[in-house]
Amino acid sequence: MHRYDAVEAASYRVAREISLTGLSSWRDAVEPYFLPGRTVLDLGAGTGLFVRAFAEWFPGVAVVAVEPSADMRQASGLTMLVGDAYAITVPDASVDVVWISTVIHHVRDLPTVGAELRRVLRPGGVVVLRSLFRERHEGVGLFRFFPEATRALSSFPTVSEVADGLGFAVDRLEPVAQVTALSLAEKASSLRWEADTLLRSLSEQEFEAGRARLLEAAAVETGPVVDHLDLLVLNAV
Ligand SMILES: C[S@@+](CC[C@H](N)C(=O)[O-])C[C@H]1O[C@@H](n2cnc3c(N)ncnc32)[C@H](O)[C@@H]1O
């Protein structure tokens, strides 16, 4: 598991957190699962981006956050439980939805995590993932400027590796758009090597060359930066 430290936690807030407006397609995509009265577990909640989003979008839903990194918990400024995917610190059959956003590539022992997910989910509960999968990376614009970052894809699982590894069935799979930044210039100014698994795979030279390409494009392209990650909904089998 990658341990996010204090520098990464601070950088994550600058580089990876997206405005709630930029995430509005994600709101629409997950709305069917976030019904009033339900309890949602945000597993690997990081700096709390989605804890805050869900509180605003779905006020009738109770959100419990579990996060292993003390620095990420502290950077969030929110109350989060200490725990991780192998030891989810909530009681048996206590949640209706487990939300896992850009975390599953950090998990190596999927069967153990699958057993934990089945333990904490109520009957009929679902796992809702937001992720980059190895075989479906066309929606990530970063590769245009940092082509060497595709090397890091080898550490990302495929959809079937995740579903089969966890022992769940695929119910829904589709790319969902997000406005990652209002412009390439904004993206360039918030870019942080340490905040992203893909960028961390680059040498300093590769990173600087990519940043130069990004700045060059930012001088002429003024539109918003739109990326796609996948929504994957899993049911217990
Ligand atoms: C890329 S961040 C995503 C944070 C948040 N889910 C989001 O979408 O903004 C990855 C997070 O996963 C956490 N993490 C890493 N390994 C984990 C594990 N085995 N179980 C739970 N969380 C884990 C990290 O500490 C980090 O906060």
TrEMBL record:
Domain Methyltransferase type: 41-129
Any matching Pfam family: Methyltransf_11
Position of the signal peptide: none
Source taxon at top rank: Bacteria
Protein name in UniProt: Methyltransferase type 11 domain-containing protein
Gene3D superfamilies given in the database record: Vaccinia Virus protein VP39 (3.40.50.150)
Source organism of this protein record: Lentzea roselyniae
